[in-house]
Amino acid sequence: MAAATALINALAKQLGTALHLENGVCALFDNDREVVIIEMPTAGDVVILHCKLLLRPDPGLYERMLRLNFDTGAMSGCWLALDEKAQVRLCAELPLDTLGEMAFVHWVQGFVRQTQDIPGLLRGHTTPAVSRRMG
Questions:
Q1: If exposure means fewest CB atoms within 10 Å of the residue's CB, which of 14, 39, 90, 120 is most exposed?
Q2: What pLDDT, on a 0 to 100 scale, did the predictor assign at position 88?
């Protein structure tokens, strides 16, 4: 767990705030809005990021989620899933041993940017970068 603590400490230093792992979880919030949940299971060898996306359900949402999951350029290694409350969550996972401190910080920051971009893609307001380049 020392490696996990070092990664969280590096992120805390970058953000200029105190962060701690509690039972393998570190949750970042902005007011009441979930920014990212970082999970580093004590018995595991992966780091999992996830975040609830604020989306209104509509008849085509699930189809758009599945189509977007297939667009690897737009998703940048992330995927969309439904949690136990049928809330849409953006998720990502990497092996712990592949992440140095700065790689972890940049990965988390990139994930947070994805949480801001993906709702627009799901609403159909923007076109994924890969599709724009090819079309």
A1: 120
A2: 93
Domains of the chain in start order, with CATH, are 2-125 (3.30.1460.10)
Written in H, E and C, the secondary structure of 96-127 is: HHHCCHHHHHHHHHHHHHHHHHHHHHHHCCCC
Q: How confident is the model at residue 80 (pLDDT cuts 50, 70, 90)?
A: very high
Supply the mean pLDDT for the chain: 87
The CA–CA distances, whole Å, from 90 to 6, 13, 114 equal 24, 25, 8
Question: What span, in angstroms and rounded, lies between the C-alpha atoms of 72 and 102?
Answer: 24
**Helix, coil or strand: residue 10:** helix
Max Cα separation, the chain? 47
Q: How far is it, in rounded angstroms, from Cα 7 to Cα 1? A: 10
Percentages (nearest 5) of helix, strand, coil residues in the chain = 45, 25, 30
